Every structure is written in structure tokens, then in C-alpha cells.
């Protein structure tokens, strides 16, 4: 009920994101922007009050102005944000201070709670003037003394609660904001989900996760140390964030970053070039958003990655199930390697091994027997199961090993809407699926 209340409050306030998925960037040229506009990435920000590229902004790629911090540059940042909001009536969000509990050398704006309290009322007034949603200062963990008061603010609530207190002392009320900004570089998806849920509930606000990727400072963490680890972590986080009603939006860090070294988090191959995407970038731009309004019909080829839920995101990674089998971290989604379908289907599901599943929404126009054809690859013989609406197994096939083969099922389906589940069981270690169809 709490999560639903958060989601509805944002709708009733009149503010909405075109989609959850966003991107942090410094600059975007026309070729890079073109890639974003035809993808699932629908909004972004550049840590500045305005965007100089006139192509950026609007319904196909919304821009969020930001007042990054205080100090001698505050008035300039404020003026740029106001000019942008005045000239872009479609803008719906204003981002607040960037990591005030951190010093500049680590990307923070180095603002004490007292300094932020004095300035925040200006941001409130600006948001009210242009009728946009106001996003809180971006919270993360602090670990160094701030310049203004010499204090270390550790957990996010330490700085935030001190800010509330300072603001109430000045103005007799708590500061206003509509969304809570968070930054998380924790490697494991379950940690990021906990972070968002905990602080959404703590501060009673929907979350904008305005910076995230796997880049944990704990050297015992491993996903950020390889490209495949980063991709696996990313795809699981996207699935979890899309499904989480406490999270209103999220922005990957970042557009132009490390391509061939730790943490392998760049969306584009080269800044200011032809817009060529990295492998990670192709997946981030393409991964489905668990769209429950989309229903496939008989006769369509259904991309395997366009599921509404799956075992890709799993909170029991590393634990043993009842059968004693350890549920390892999945590779999840990858670029399609099937030559037959790669021009029409962008991604495949990797590691679709024992106990993996994926759910798809379908609309059946006629009650009859259907043939489901699954396109897969496996290094060993593997059992595939199909069920509908969580009921009994409708059919199973013992599929032989091979590179991009097809397995066929016969299903009796009634007219109406159904959730079809594909599930895998067996000892194969390398199982991929790319598509299936109902005819």
C-alpha cells in the first residue's frame, strides 16, 4: 500500500517521467542523441542548469535542469536553470544539490546542512514559479569532513536530518521536495533495491536514482571488475528498478566513461563521435521495461527478452535452494548471437539453465490448439516447460543439445489474456533463448 501511495502521489501532483530509464551525461552530439531517442532511455541531465544543444528536450528525450551546489557559482547556476525553465514549458523537474555531504574532489558540492537550508527556499520558489517537481539534494554516503563545519556525515539520513533541523530553525517548517534523489554504486542489485526502499520509506517520497552503476569501493566486490560482471549487474538492477513502485526513475552513470577498463560503464564508445554504442550501451538502451500493457498475439515472433518478469533478478543469488543447488549469478541478457534473428531481435537471454524462467503476456483471439516454437541454444540436452497463468504444466519438451535449434510444443489455449511461462530444467550450463512464437 505504501508503494502504491507513492506512485499515485506523483501522478496526482501532475508530474511524470516519459519512462523510468534515464542517463547522466556531460555532452551529447546529434548522433548520440539520435541513438537515445529511438531507445528506452527517455530522459537525462548534465549536472547543469541548462542544455546548450537545442535538439535536447521535449517528449522524446526530456531534460532535467539542476542547481548543482552553492558557493560563488550559485547565482549563475540559478539563473541558467530559471532561463531554461522559462523557455521550456514542457520541463517538469528541477534537480537539487549534488551530493552535498561530499567534497568536490569526489563529485560532491560540499554544502553543510546549514548552508543548504539558507539556499533551498530559492529552489522551492523557482519550482513553484514554473510548476515543476522539485527533487531533493542527492543523497549518498559521506566519509570526509565538509569544508564549512568540519563534520563527517556518514549515512544519508545524517546530513538530511541535520538539514531538516536547520531549515526548521530558519523557516519554522520542513523543506519541500517532491522526489528523493539517491546515488548508489553498490555492486549487487539486492543492495541497491534495499537502499531505494529503505530511504523511500524513511523519507516518505518516491525515489529518483539519479546515479548508479556497479562501482563499489569495497575491493571484495567483483561485478564492476569485468564487462560481463557490469552487464549482469546492470540487467538485474534494471529489472528490479522497473518493477519497484518506490522508484519513479533511474539514470545510468554514465554516457561517456570507462570503455575498456574498470568499471566498464560507458554507454558510448567514444565521446563526440558517430554515436557508436558499447556492448553495455546497446543492452541498456534496448532492455525491455517489463511493460504490462503490451500483449503479444498469435502469429507474432516474440523476443525472449521482452518478458514481464523473470528469474534474471534474484535476491537469493549465492544461496542454496531446497534441492541443494546453488543459484549462481546469471549472465542475464546479452546481445543476440543468433545469425538468423540478429537483425530483428536485439538481445538474447543467457544462462537460461536449471530453474530459470521468463513470463510473457499474450492475447489469444480463438480457443484452439497452438504450436509454440522456441528458438534456443544448449550445450547439453535440456528440458523446457510451458505453463499458463501459473497453473499446471501444459507441456514439456526434452530438447537436444545444439547451436540455435528449435523446440516445438503443442498447447491448448482459451480465448483471452494469459501469462505464458517458459522454464528450463536440466544440467546444461550454457542455455540461451532468443525468441518463441505461437501459431
Structure, explained:
- The two termini are 40 Å apart.
- Helix 6 (189-203) runs parallel beside helix 7.
- The chain has 439 residues and is α/β, with parallel strands linked by helices.
- It contains 8 helices and 20 strands.
Number of strands: 20
Strand content: 15-25%
Roughly what is the average pLDDT, rounded to an integer? 91
The backbone outline, from C-alpha atoms, is elongated
Fraction of residues in H or I helices: 10-25%
First-last Cα distance: 40 Å
Our Rg estimate from Cα atoms comes to: 23 Å
User: Stretches where pLDDT falls below 50 for ≥5 residues?
Assistant: 1-13, 323-328
Number of helices: 8
Please state the structural category.
Answer: alpha/beta
Please write the string of helix (H) and strand (E) elements: HEHEEHEHEHEHEHEHEEEEEEEEEEEE
Strand order of the largest sheet: 3-2-1-8-7-6
Biggest β-sheet description: 6 strands, parallel
Features:
single chain, 439 residues, alpha/beta, 6-stranded parallel beta sheet, 6-stranded mixed beta sheet, 8 helices, 24% helix, 25% strand, elongated, disordered N terminus
